[in-house]
From TrEMBL:
GO terms for cellular component: mitochondrial matrix; peroxisomal matrix. This is Malonyl-CoA decarboxylase. The lineage of its organism: Eukaryota, Sar, Stramenopiles, Oomycota, Peronosporomycetes. Residues 563-598, 644-669 form the EF-hand domain. The keyword Mitochondrion does not apply. GO terms for molecular function: calcium ion binding; malonyl-CoA decarboxylase activity.
Length: 669
């Protein structure tokens, strides 16, 4: 007996439960019969036309009654699958997908809410399964230990009830996701994977814009399930790395590269040709089920050294006569194309796979780094507008900026904060064309940028999303660049600054581990020198961290000393009374005092001289330390509330603001 009539009757029962008419049922059975006979292209077209007139096509989800019908239909699909096997009629899948695609965002929200709320766990089934599991578990437990007695005759029954409980605790939409509905979309519908990706993009939009407080929990749970499902299908093993070229890639793909470029927009075909031309590379990840859609792509420049600006990339790559002359690969733009894959980590795999491919193609490449934007820097700086913390802007550097502004007739309000003065300067039309303004802003902005990347955190991780992405992938915060992106977008986002994140392939795993476990951002020498000095005292008492560039070891080395790890560990242990493993300023001063006591035995001022030199003095005790510098270190970097200004004023008898060695020594002792 043919199975087609049975399948037709099953589909009829499902659709009748949703309130379909007799005419619609006859169409459904005809669809299934025609599919079972595999009648070719004409039958396919006929089936498609009949589906467009189906009950689901005309459903109005603004009507609560229609919502209930659709909910009942999908539940019948799930429950029937659980009872009868894997078959779900293609007409049901196709009709649901076709209906969904034709909805506006409000109707899609209702559809998603049906999945999220009506297809959550079956409470009665979960309670029944839990009771059966508990009963069987008690039957086979060892009386003494309470553990499972694996030799008991009812172990198999226990395991069966465990599986039943696990299945009962899974929301019905997870059954949809993993077993029938979504899986059938993949197998029965052309571009089924892309449909699911777009569905999640809709879900994220609903979560972001229109979901009410009471709707959020269920929708978030649905999103977590769909994200997990997609992540399993878009793991690196399924992805194909492909180079994009102007000469050989299809025109449709090149158009998508232009359309999806998110970091540095491509204005013309000529610009795209340049980005795919001499000294450049573009690679993209593709999925076999979406072969025409680049999921994420990266632009790379082959250069002599790490790029400091977008202009340097343009200039050097155009002058590069042979790729063999390049020793650095610079990733300067990474763009994801599918909003529905947000949170599915594709960029991490892409960078590492591209680095491997480039290393294979060009073994002479030594350095892999990015030239990355700070897309939210100016937004963050605006939040600091009314703060008076002197650690944000050095008084000396602020005075230099104010002098330039006043020369140009710009009045400074008496109650203006340092950051507000900086922000107002950046709002001056064509400030970037004024060399003196650019020069006076440079040290201020570089220091603010370094602080933003290194110190500003969200839940222990870098606040800047680009920094978090690269550091999480194992990169080093290598350098911050001034006047790196002078485009309108670059100036608006970060006053033109850009960051180099360096990928040392031998250390990316260790860097990744330190960041994930200890929130450590590995930092290069340049941002360490211009950034907030406080970072040098904030580290953990472990050997791995003693080796970090921003550790105490680096500070002592900068002062002309070369302590061993054992000596450092001993210094720390002597003062770390609370065993926190972190050195605060008071403990740092205690280390200095201990060193001074030891030096006093030899009538030696070496530690005091080292501190004097580190603050700006000279090794022969000549020169001076600026008052503003010492105040910043004591109050800004270490956050102390002592009246250091009064102490300085009492000792700085000539009122010069220049602290000589004897005065410096008196202040610290």
């Amino acid at each position: 007996m043919s199975s087609a009539p049975i399948r037709g009757l099953w589909a009829a029962r499902v659709l009748r439960s949703a309130g379909a008419t007799q005419r619609e049922l006859s169409i459904t059975k005809g669809d299934i019969s025609s599919k079972s006979k595999r009648g070719g292209d004409a039958a396919e077209d006929s089936t498609h036309q009949r589906q467009r007139s189906s009950f689901l096509r005309s459903i109005d989800l603004s009507n609560p009654a229609a919502q209930r019908k659709l909910s009942k239909l999908i539940q019948e699909v799930v429950k029937t699958k659980a009872n009868t096997g894997d078959f779900v009629p293609q007409v049901v899948i196709q009709s649901l997908c076709t209906t969904y695609r034709g909805m506006d965002i409000d109707e899609k929200k209702q559809f998603l809410l049906i999945l999220a709320q009506d297809l959550h766990i079956d409470t009665a089934m979960a309670l029944q399964s839990a009771a059966q599991f508990e009963q069987n578990m008690n039957n086979i437990k060892d009386a003494r230990s309470g553990d499972v007695n694996w030799e008991h005759e009812n172990v198999e029954r226990y395991l069966r009830t465990f599986r039943n409980l696990r299945n009962a605790l899974a929301p019905l939409y997870e059954v949809l996701t993993c077993a029938t509905f979504f899986q059938q979309i993949l197998s029965q519908r052309e571009n089924g994977m892309l449909f699911l990706v777009h569905m999640r993009a809709d879900l994220l939009q609903v979560l972001r814009k229109s979901a009410t407080h009471s709707e959020l929990p269920a929708l978030r749970s649905l999103d977590a399930s769909l994200k997990h499902f997609l992540a399993s299908w878009f793991s690196v093993g399924f992805l194909k790395l492909q180079r994009v070229t102007y000469e050989h890639s299809p025109g449709q793909l090149l158009e998508k590269i232009i359309r999806y470029e998110a970091v540095h927009p491509v204005g013309t075909i000529a610009e795209l040709k340049r980005r795919l031309g001499n000294g450049r590379r573009c690679f993209a990840f593709f999925h076999p089920s979406i072969p025409d859609e680049p999921l994420v792509f990266v632009h790379v420049a082959l250069m002599h050294e790490i790029a400091s600006s977008m202009q340097s990339i343009r200039d050097e790559t155009e002058q590069l006569s042979e790729d063999s002359q390049a020793y650095a690969a610079i990733f300067y733009s990474i763009s994801s194309t599918q909003k529905g894959l947000a949170g599915v980590d594709l960029g991490n795999f892409l960078i590492k796979e591209v680095a491997k491919a480039l290393k294979t193609e060009h073994p002479h490449l030594k350095t892999f780094a990015t030239l990355s934007p700070l897309p939210q820097f100016m937004l963050w700086l605006e939040t600091q507008r009314y703060k008076t913390d002197e650690s944000l802007v050095s008084p000396l550097e602020l005075d230099a900026l104010i002098d330039v502004l006043e020369e140009r007739g710009n009045a400074i309000q008496s109650d203006a904060t340092p950051v507000s003065i900086v922000l107002d300067t950046l709002s001056i039309d064509k400030w970037i064309k004024d060399p003196e303004l650019v020069t006076s802003l440079k040290p201020i902005m570089l220091k603010l940028g370094a602080r933003y990347i290194y110190h500003e955190k969200k839940r222990g991780k870098a606040l800047d999303p680009v920094a978090n992405f690269h550091v999480r992938n194992g990169a080093i915060f290598e350098r911050i660049n001034w006047q790196a992106d002078l485009s309108k977008k670059g100036l608006a986002q970060s006053a033109g600054m850009m960051i180099n994140y360096k990928y040392d392939l031998a250390h990316v795993e260790a860097n990744n581990e330190n960041y994930l476990l200890h929130n450590i951002i590995p930092i290069g020498l340049q941002p360490q020198q211009i950034g907030n000095v406080k970072s040098r005292w904030s580290w953990r008492k472990t050997r791995s961290m003693l080796a970090e560039k921003h550790s105490w070891h680096s500070t002592r080395t900068a002062m002309g000393q070369q302590p061993t790890e054992e000596e450092l560990f001993q210094m720390i242990s002597e003062v770390d009374e609370d065993m926190s493993g972190a050195i605060d300023f008071a403990e740092f001063l205690q280390v200095i005092d201990n060193q001074k006591d030891r030096a006093a035995m030899f009538e030696d001022d070496s530690d005091m001289i080292d501190a004097f030199v580190a603050c700006g003095g000279k090794p022969d005790k000549s020169g001076f330390v600026r008052k503003e510098t010492l105040v910043k270190i004591i109050k800004g970097d270490f956050g102390l509330t002592i009246n250091i200004e009064e102490m300085i004023n009492k000792l700085d008898v000539d009122g010069s603001g220049e602290i000589e060695f004897d005065e410096f020594k008196a202040i610290l002792t």
